[in-house]
Amino acid sequence: TAFCFGPLFSPAWIWALTPDLTKQTLSFRDRRTGVTVHIIGTMHYNPHSIAKTRAIIRSYGESDRLGSIVVESCDLRWKLVQKAQPEGSFLRAVLDNEFQAAAEAGAGFTGSDVILADEDVKDNDARINRAFLSSVRDWLDPLGGGWTAISDDILRGYAASVDPASLSERTLPPSAYLDRSDLLDPGMLRGAPVSLVRYALAILIRTPRKGILLLGWVGLLVGLLATRGFDGLTYTEGALASAAGFALSLSVGLPLLGRVYLVALLGERNEILAKNIRRECARLANSGAEDAVCVAVLGLAHCNGVKRVLCE
Q: How many CB atoms lie within 10 A of CB 68?
């Protein structure tokens, strides 16, 4: 019978690992196939996440339980990364990441390449652009129900992807999902500065135009903060300007970017990731390897939403 349990059903041996290795992870069975899925939630390029990914995959491999490794990437992105920074290269060391680390750690155990579970990056970009334009149209139409539509999407998106336990039709308790303690894990936080630097370098190297725009934008913000805004303003004027800027951010930035993030970047991609993970679970089950584990390496923000779909 296919079923789905929370993290307490994880194989007993996993709890013998150091406590850090059980943070930011979800171990459960896919409801439809019964195959065990172990999601490793990561902060991209974070040394703590990379070390955890390697350790968990090696542990499954050494115990002959590693069935397959699924990563949050697509064919185009994966080929570009493998070409630009192959194993052993200088750039591979500088831009060390959890996806290549997972592939390298499992290479001697699975006998096959990693499974690429994400949609094509071009399709992803097109979908995000459509979602943003749709949000702009709705934001400009408050009397026609646009603002209500944005609000409903944000609330539904948050519940489905971030806090599935809050859904009325929930089947799992809050303890079955990641929570703020996973986000505030000291080991991951210590590696956050390295992660941010690597992320910026990766964008600058792979897409120089986007990288320059990003660094310019960050530099402008830092410059404004360092100079405390604009010269010539009184304390009251400065306070009013800050309040107006904050209100503008809430009224424009939150509806537009919040909807794109929760619906297009998270919700819809969670469905795609879960579908491809479940397809791999079905392959394992059909090949007689239903006792093997499908390890999925995903960005931390995708974990709860993907688990929710796989437990339906």
A: 24
C-beta atoms surrounding 290 within 10 Å: 16
Model confidence pLDDT, tens digit, residues 108-153 = 888 778 999 999 999 999 999 999 999 999 999 989 999 999 999 9
User: Rounded distance, CA 247 to CA 254, Å?
Assistant: 10
Strands 36-42 and 66-71: unpaired
Give the pLDDT of residue 20: 59
Q: What is the rounded CA–CA span in Å between residue 98 and residue 202?
A: 14
User: Is the CB of residue 30 less than 8 Å from the CB of residue 310?
Assistant: yes
Range list of H helices, the chain: 47-62, 75-84, 90-94, 98-110, 121-139, 146-161, 180-183, 186-206, 208-226, 235-248, 254-259, 269-286, 303-310
Q: How many Å apart are CA 149 and CA 156, to the nearest integer?
A: 11
The three state secondary structure string of 172-223 is: CCHHHCCCHHHHCCHHHHHHHHHHHHHHHHHHHHHCHHHHHHHHHHHHHHHH
Relative to beta strand 115-116, strand 293-299 is: unpaired
The pLDDT tens digits for 286-309 are 998 878 999 999 999 999 999 999
pTM confidence score? 0.84
The predicted pLDDT at position 219 comes to: 75
For 4-20, how does the pLDDT look when each residue is reduced to its tens digit (9 = 90+)?
544 433 343 333 344 45
The neighbouring-strand residues paired with 298 are 41
Distance CA 267, CA 282 (A): 23
